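Many introductory courses stop at the sequence. We go one step further.
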Amino acid sequence: MQSLLYATMLLFAWSVSLTHLSLHFLQIPEEDRLLAGVFMGAAYTLFGVPFTGWV
């Protein structure tokens, strides 16, 4: 159970930080950030799922 919590927190930190950096570096306009952030966050979460098996 504890490793599941670690994996969840790692995946959350991974997706939030990469989404924030991507929105900043791609200079997404303010009105489009919510929609772009949702899709980027989902994509980064899916990319990070295989790495949670190592935790």
